[in-house]
Design goal:
54% strand; single chain; elongated; 2 helices; Lipocalin; mainly beta
Length: 180
């Protein structure tokens, strides 16, 4: 009897993790890195976030974010073309970078720790990062930062492996607004 009750509670909890519709006008995904020790902030123009979130049971929630690697906007059309090339994102062969959650754990009120698989340029790594979640205008807003090392994903081949020009450390920043 106890197993049936637990199974029923689990199914009910999973059923409450509802898919949210991403409000792209109020969402953003970007990257911050240093070039010649000067911070550079860039935004991805195209991405898609699929979030199934239950505030009462965040541990049954799921998230997936797909980013169009050719949409990175550095503020200059020539630079934008450059980062889509083979040495950087190789957007022709790897048009998407993706994150798929494997675990979402509540930390404190309004704070989650998310673990998952990050795939960029055909390389996948396990990652974990904190996220704040808050209601705003009838939506849930998920904000966070994920530090990565670009060379672990082969971003910056050949002469661009030199980290004195472009630092290895990159911080992916995101703000996803989503609601029913």
């Amino acid at each position: 009897m106890k197993r049936i009750l637990l199974a029923t509670l689990f199914v009910a909890a999973v059923a409450n993790a509802a898919p949210l519709k991403t409000d792209l006008a109020h969402s953003s995904v970007g990257a911050v890195f240093k070039q010649m020790n000067v911070p550079v902030e860039a935004k991805f123009k195209r991405f898609d976030a699929q979030i199934d979130y239950d505030a009462a049971h965040p541990d049954v929630s799921k998230a997936r974010v797909d980013i169009d690697t050719g949409s990175l906007d550095l503020g200059d059309p020539e630079y934008n073309k450059e980062v889509a090339k083979k040495e950087w994102f190789n957007s022709a062969q790897y048009p998407k970078a993706s994150f798929v959650s494997t675990a979402i754990k509540p930390v404190t009120a309004g704070k989650l720790n998310i673990a998952g698989k990050l795939t960029i340029k055909g390389r996948t790594a396990d990652v974990s990062f904190p996220v704040t979640v808050k209601p705003e205008g009838g939506k849930q807003v998920f904000e966070g930062q994920l530090p990565i090392r670009r060379l672990a994903f082969n971003i910056g081949e050949g002469e661009w492996k030199d980290t004195s020009m472009v630092a290895d450390e990159v911080v992916i920043k995101f703000r996803i607004a989503a609601g029913q």
